[in-house]
Every structure is written in structure tokens, then in C-alpha cells.
């Protein structure tokens, strides 16, 4: 989100922008997982977009008018689990913070940003090092498992998680100060369980999204099918693991971890509904590495930028551990760059 938000703002101002993306497309933790065999889709990253700033709200409202996002006036709750007593209590959360989701999936949010861009997107590129060449920057790494070296760019922007930022900068022996700031950020991994049921679970309207307390396995549960603009052909649920569980089982087989999480999900839902929960027809697991940065205080300006070298850094870890934080960081960096660059520069 941070990188695309930054690139979008720069491209709209007339700058030439090239985005190098490690994956097959833009998205990050707003990606959507598609099961090819069944056609089922899961929002396996961020379940929703909480909106606390006018800047982010105004952008979301502009996308709402285009039908790309929708407000989610769902039933949000806290689930208190007591495994000893085999009981669960559900407490509704009264929260007036606007919440949005992408439609028909969360990945639409990033697609909305990138669709506005007259930019060159390079996918399947893993940037390993940066090299200062004259007054510009050259990126080196792997493109589809082959070594690559980019053209010279006036400005270089890193929009990756904190540990990856530190690795690239340290490996390139450039900007020790930025590398130190990024290296001091601790990030928490997560694990997502994705389950599709043939019929709606026998406990409708209990909650649409809940933070779970008292479970050693599951941190949150989201009823994907309850989101606006979703298919109702099957009943989709996504659960995210607690940090401790994710760390402990991070390198294990994803199918095994998904089953462990499914068993806990079934136990919790059975205690809530007091009815048997059927087995899912689709069960998937996905590991998220540096998923949640520990942000004690946002960086000044929500980004890092060195005008003298043309190096900038943005990401949720610079502002707040959320999609909104990433959006604000990328937008702030774009504003800083636009003050110094004339139209026609390459980025």
C-alpha cells in the first residue's frame, strides 16, 4: 500500500515512475487468495480498513463513489474464551470509527491506487542492493531468477517491511542512519487460516469480525461472506493466529498449521453456537512474515527522505501498523519528493 500510494501521487503529478515488485502483482497484506479448484476467494490479509484520519477517509470515500470500496457496517465484537470452563462470551464493540472493505475483494483497494498510474510495473523482481551511480541510483537483484541491473533513476524509494529495508541498505553499504532506524523495528509474524463451508454455519449474526481473547491459537476471526459485495455461494471464514502461535509454528507445513487453527476455530464456534460445526470444503493456510511492525511512535513526517541523495523510505512501520499507516507514509514521502523534483524526472 505504501509504495503504490507514493507512486500514485508522484505519477499523478507528472513524474515518470517505475515500480519493482517482488510478487506477481500489487497487494501486500491487502492481497486476496483465490482457490483455483473451487473459485473461492479469501481476504487472507487485512480484514478491513479502519479509518481514523481525514486524508485516508477522503480517499476511501472517493473510491466508494467509484464502487471500488464499501463501508462495512458489520457486527464487530470481542470473544472471551475460557477453555477450562468450555465457554465463550461475545461482547459487541461499540466503535464509530468508519470501516471499509474493498469490493469485490480487499485486493481491489491496491488495484484502485495502481489503476490511476501511468507507470511501468516490473513484477517478479527481488531487489537485493542499491548502488549510487553519479547523481542517481541503480537497483540490482534477481528478475525471475536471473540477475538484473536497472537503469539509473534520480530517486530511489524503498517501500518494504522494516527488516527488508535494513537488509537492503546494509547490504548496499548506503545510508547507515536509515538502516539503523529500520533495523530497530521489531515485526510480528502471523498465520492465516482460510476456510470455506458449503452452507452457512449454524450461528448466524453472532459477529462479522471479532478479536479473540483467551485463545493460545487464534487472535481474530472474520466472516468474509458478511462483507459487502461478497459472493454467498459458500460461507467463507478467515482466522489469524496469535503472534506466539505464529512464531512457534511458522516454518511448519502450512496444511498442518491450518488444520490446527481450524480445530481451534471449530472449538470456539461450537462453544458460541452450541451446535456442531461441519468440516470445511476448502481449508488453506498462509504464513505472513513481518506482518505487524511494533510502532511505538510514528517517525517524524511518517517517512524517511534524504534530499541530498534522493533516497526515500516508507511503509506502515514508519507511521502505524495498518493499511492507513502505510497509505499515510507513502503519501507523505510523495509530498516530500514533489517539493524537490520537477516534472519529467525518473523514479
UniProtKB/TrEMBL annotation:
One Pfam family named in its UniProt record: Amino_oxidase
GO molecular function, one term: oxidoreductase activity
Domain Amine oxidase: 100-338
Name assigned to this protein: Amine oxidase domain-containing protein
Naturally occurring in which organism (per UniProt): Palpitomonas bilix
Amino acid at each position: 500500500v505504501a509504495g503504490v500510494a507514493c507512486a500514485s501521487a508522484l505519477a499523478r503529478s507528472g513524474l515518470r515512475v517505475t515500480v519493482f515488485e517482488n510478487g506477481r502483482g500489487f497487494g501486500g497484506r491487502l492481497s486476496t487468495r483465490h482457490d483455483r479448484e473451487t473459485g473461492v476467494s479469501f481476504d487472507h490479509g487485512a480484514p478491513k480498513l479502519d479509518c481514523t484520519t481525514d486524508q485516508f477517509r477522503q480517499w476511501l470515500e472517493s473510491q466508494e463513489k467509484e464502487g471500488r470500496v464499501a463501508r462495512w457496517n458489520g457486527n464487530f465484537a470481542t470473544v472471551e474464551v475460557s477453555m477450562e470452563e468450555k465457554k465463550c462470551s461475545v461482547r459487541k464493540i461499540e466503535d464509530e470509527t468508519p470501516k471499509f472493505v474493498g469490493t469485490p475483494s480487499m485486493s481491489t483497494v491496491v488495484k484502485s491506487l495502481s489503476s490511476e498510474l501511468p507507470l511501468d510495473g516490473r513484477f517478479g523482481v527481488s531487489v537485493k542492493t542499491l548502488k549510487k551511480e553519479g547523481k542517481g541510483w541503480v537497483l540490482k537483484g534477481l528478475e525471475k531468477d536471473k540477475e538484473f541491473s536497472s537503469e539509473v533513476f534520480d530517486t530511489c524509494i524503498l517501500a518494504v517491511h522494516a527488516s527488508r529495508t535494513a537488509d537492503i541498505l546494509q547490504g548496499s553499504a548506503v545510508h547507515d542512519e536509515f538502516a539503523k532506524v529500520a533495523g530497530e523495528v521489531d515485526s510480528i509474524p502471523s498465520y492465516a487460516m482460510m476456510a470455506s463451508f458449503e452452507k452457512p454455519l449454524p450461528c448466524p449474526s453472532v459477529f462479522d469480525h471479532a478479536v479473540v481473547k483467551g485463545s493460545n491459537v487464534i487472535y481474530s476471526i472474520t466472516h468474509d461472506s458478511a462483507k459487502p459485495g461478497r459472493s454467498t455461494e459458500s460461507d467463507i471464514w478467515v482466522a489469524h493466529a496469535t503472534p506466539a502461535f505464529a512464531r512457534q509454528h511458522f516454518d511448519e507445513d502450512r496444511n498442518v498449521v491450518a488444520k490446527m487453527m481450524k480445530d481451534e476455530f471449530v472449538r470456539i464456534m461450537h462453544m458460541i453456537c452450541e451446535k456442531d460445526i461441519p468440516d470445511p470444503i476448502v481449508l488453506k493456510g498462509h504464513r505472513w512474515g513481518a506482518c505487524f511492525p511494533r510502532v511505538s511512535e510514528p517517525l517524524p513526517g511518517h517517512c524517511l527522505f534524504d534530499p541530498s541523495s534522493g533516497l526515500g523510505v516508507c511503509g506502515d512501520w514508519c507511521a502505524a501498523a495498518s493499511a492507513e499507516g502505510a497509505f499515510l507514509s507513502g503519501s507523505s514521502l510523495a509530498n516530500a519528493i514533489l517539493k524537490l523534483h520537477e516534472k519529467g524526472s525518473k523514479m
